[in-house]
Amino acid sequence: MPEERRKMIHFRKLYSFACFHSKYEHSHSQIGQKGYSRVVYCNDPYHSEAVELNYRGNYVSTTKYSAANFIPKSLFEQFRRVANIYFLVVACVSFSPLAPFSSLSILAPLIVVIGATMAKEGVEDWRRRKQDIEENNRKVKVYGSNYMFHETNWKELRVGDIVKVRKDEYFPADLVLLSSSHEDGVCYVETMNLDGETNLKLKHALEVTSHLHDENSFKKFTAVIKCEDPNEKLYSFVGNLSCDGKEYPLSIQQLLLRGSKLKNTEYVFGVVIFAGHDTKVVQNATDPPSKRSKIEKKMDKIVYILFSTLVLIAFVGSLFFGIETKKDFSDGNLRRWYLHPDDATVFYDPKRPSLSAFLHFLTALMLYGYLIPISLYVSVEIVKVLQSSFINQDRHMYDEETDKPAHARTSNLNEELGQVDTILSDKTGTLTRNSMEFVKCSIAGTAYGCGMTEVERSLARRRGDPLPETGDDVQGHEGEKSVRGFNFRDERIMHGQWLNEPHWDIIQKFFRVLAICHTVIPEKNEESGEIMYRAESPDEAAFVIAAKEIGFEFFRVTQTSISLRELDYETGEKVVRKYKRLHVLEFSSSRKRMSVIVRNAENQLFLLCKGADSVMFQRLSKNGRQFETQTKDHIKKYAEAGLRTMIIAYRELGEAEYKAWDVEFSKAKTSVTTEHDVSVDELADKIERDLILLGATAVEDKLQKGVPECIDKLSQARIKLWVLTGDKMETAINIGYACGLLREDMKQIVITLDSPDIDALEKQGDKEAIAKASLESIKKQIREGMCQIKSAKESDVKFGLIIDGKSLDFSLKKDIDKSFFELAINCASVICCRSSPKQKALVTRLLKGETGKTTLAIGDGANDVSMLQEADIGVGISGVEGMQICYFFYKNIAFGFTLFLFEAHASFSGQTAYNDWYMSFYNVFFTSLPVIALGVFDQDVSAQLCVKYPFLYLEGVENILFGWSCILGWMFNGFLTSIIIFFWTTKSMIKQAFQRDGQVVDYEVLGVTMYTCVVWAVNCQMAISINYFTWIQHFFVWGSIALWYTFLVIYGYLPPEMSTTAYRVFVEACAPSVLYWLITLLVVICTLLPNFTFRAFQTRFRPMYHDMIQINEFEGVETDELPRRVRKKLHLMERLMQKDRLMQRNS
């Protein structure tokens, strides 16, 4: 059975401008040429020519790996890390006689490290794959060969298929709209996932296909669409539909994009023209990148340094080994006869000392490999995963309203989160809540509305003004039900009290305009009887709701009329009034206003108009400016409060004037010439004059909770914020003011291509001329912007840069992108409007490439994916990864250098100081757990203090904890620790009686004693570096030391063939000896003293930012002021930055 079609409004007859008039443009002549070669056989996807074209299917994948490439690609990712390459080579060589230890002892840790990291990558990619599977297996109805619609998965769709999409469903591919449940083939579409806008877009089918409304009507339907090739342009589409021997032009008005949602329409029929990776939203996406953090790249550089050190000491050792070996056999004399140099292998051959030295060099490269921290990468990975789980479980990041916690999709970039220099943020849904609220208005020169907006509260706090005691923005009557979109309170006009106001008649006309001048559709909820409003924009919905709450309820609309329930002035009762709607002159970005012409029950004609103050005040009549001064004052105050304003006006039309205009307008409206838009615009302009001012509205695009305060904190932390949004320029600017990104004392630099010259060229259709003129215009505007900044360099004037999408296209071209970047970086705020997803990614790439600093992107929809992937990271916390990684290098140098000192002591013989498994377990078990606890649990200051003192974030931005001075300091400490351990133990033990029977220390006992000192020293070093102890950290630090003793006992009880040099050495030799315990105690104290002394000196005389706050907290000093040292340093940094920019401009 065919579904009932909605016989409501024929929008095609009601609307005035081009959205319902498909016409040929210059670009249509390019169809069939390069870039416009796609051919789609509608309702015939298996046509022989369609099969030959072999267009992509509708399967979409966003994963980084596939089953086929996971192992090779993941291994490639792992061996991008230089340490892993080194250990792979060592593992391979360990099977040769050159190895100083068993191959298993080096291969096992490598397999564990690589396997754990690959497993983490695999799990994270599997989660992405599950999301892909969920999307690809969504259901949609497709027209089959049996002439019926049947359900199928999205991934099964082919180009040319006819699909049926129902209300509130997403479009499965890019479709050309054929028809809808409305008789004239219109539908509403929500594109929030594509451009971030919540207002609904009106789409319409061609008249030739709008009659297709059931299965039978599609039996004989065939058509061929020729259109542009797949591209990323969301706001343009060019094509032709050939049907019944005629061609009809297609435009963006017929295109339904994948990822957008059908709203306010029961169903639509469409034909698939772009599927899968050819769809515009996927074309805007980029492949999941293999991101590596800056710290990880720096770790590689440090590993290079350590590897160079390793090569150097291996070379020194082999050189001395060669010299000593050569001396062992000279003129037939044997120097070290006990080594049997006359019967030696190639590894020790006094007759060929050079070869022996070279082979020793290879052995030393493996022996000193413990300078390279094999567990560093896997430990950091574990820390990242645990930090990500904490992010997911953080109560402060949980949203009660949506019942959604934070979700970290990847943990690869956690260490970057404390080093962000610039944040790139989407607007809609990120800075704002996608919610417009009517909060204030000015009527007849009187301001109404008592509440304070979030921005007003923020301003009052900064100025120190008193705030209302109430926590909410606006308080209504006790028990009064809150209404979405209406946050207005004023007893003078609510609850019918407007009837008692002096200008009650103007108030009446004001709210009548709000109730009538719109394109909203009312829908009645059958269960509750409530009327819901479906609007193209949230502003319109807020206006209609406001009118309803005051007493002018819009409840019915037909093709020719609109009905209200009004409060009658004389009787005080609700009455139904019907208005005949004659014309709708809709809003556009160039007109910046909207009007309707209506006839009331008394047969009077009115033009009702609302629009931006920049175009409305100039259209007022001499007699209509009575309240102009007061209204302008109110608008200024509303703008300062971050509210979006709209002027409300009207005029009464004479019968003769209207009839003459109507004839001209109807003729222009039905024309199909290229001058259609110009003619209609001129006639609309002609009648929208001599208006009478009624007042102004003020609506709030509700910000996310705490946005102004957050931006203020970011500013104090010297983090820059750029807003990249798909919204219109006016909307973005308003939000810029609302959230404090733009301020009244800022000068705006606006770069746009909305100029009469460019408009004239666009009408001519000469693409080359348009591109050339646009490029010159952008260059000129950038030059002028730089001149403004240079002229104001001596003053404290700050600038805000606002640029639209068209201008951004040219600004990102290679020849001028650096000029654009220089202009942007010299502005305090940057807002990019009407940005496509690809433009967002390109701006991010430009910023990241030119500054070389960490960028963080924040977004909430599919339109932000490319930006999120291009940026270094997506969301932020503050961490201590610098300290964690420095400690890794410290502990490995402290351990590895004792091997070198011992080998020097043993004439560079290649003899290891420790048992094979001591060395293998050092990084894996005995010293890695405390550093993981540090990275996950340590806090230098509490989260509350981090918010109170945003300058603490500068420690990450300035790289204080992972700068080269810090890294080299820890390395030096490692060398010092190894020297203290080796010389203390050897000098105090070797020649001393160690056991009761008078035996001296042997090789096994010396090795255990040195190793014990190393384990104690590096773990205690970790303990004194921890700022915030938890039981977990105590367990890991002291548990690691206890684990060493436990291992030593258990391993020592294994048979001598397995335990080798560890056989009962602890139980029978070390544990009973007082000297062993005494040396351990004294050596550990001596190794801790250098770093302890340095930190005490630093905290007292050269404190870091967090040291200052810790001292204040310890001394009980509470102040909101920055410490003097911080103020001085920040002032110096600001001056240096200004000087640097000045030098760049002059050069």
From TrEMBL:
Region called Disordered, residue ranges: 460-480
Gene3D superfamilies: Calcium-transporting ATPase, cytoplasmic domain N, Calcium-transporting ATPase, cytoplasmic transduction domain A, HAD superfamily/HAD-like
Record keywords: ATP-binding, Magnesium, Membrane, Metal-binding, Nucleotide-binding, Translocase, Transmembrane, Transmembrane helix
Enzyme nomenclature, EC number: 7.6.2.1
Required cofactor(s): Mg(2+)
Positions contributing to Mg(2+) binding: 426, 428, 860, 864
Stored InterPro entries: ATPase_P-typ_cyto_dom_N, ATPase_P-typ_P_site, ATPase_P-typ_TM_dom_sf, ATPase_P-typ_transduc_dom_A_sf, ATPase_P-type_domA, HAD-like_sf, HAD_sf, P-type_ATPase_IV
Chain ranges of the P-type ATPase A domain: 137-203
Pfam families assigned: Cation_ATPase, E1-E2_ATPase, PhoLip_ATPase_C, PhoLip_ATPase_N
Residues in P-type ATPase N-terminal domain copies: 40-104
Superkingdom: Eukaryota
GO CC annotation terms, alphabetical: plasma membrane
UniProt subcellular location: Endomembrane system; Membrane
Similarity field: Belongs to the cation transport ATPase (P-type) (TC 3.A.3) family. Type IV subfamily.
Function: Involved in transport of phospholipids.
Protein known as: Phospholipid-transporting ATPase
The organism of origin for this protein: Castanea mollissima (Chinese chestnut)
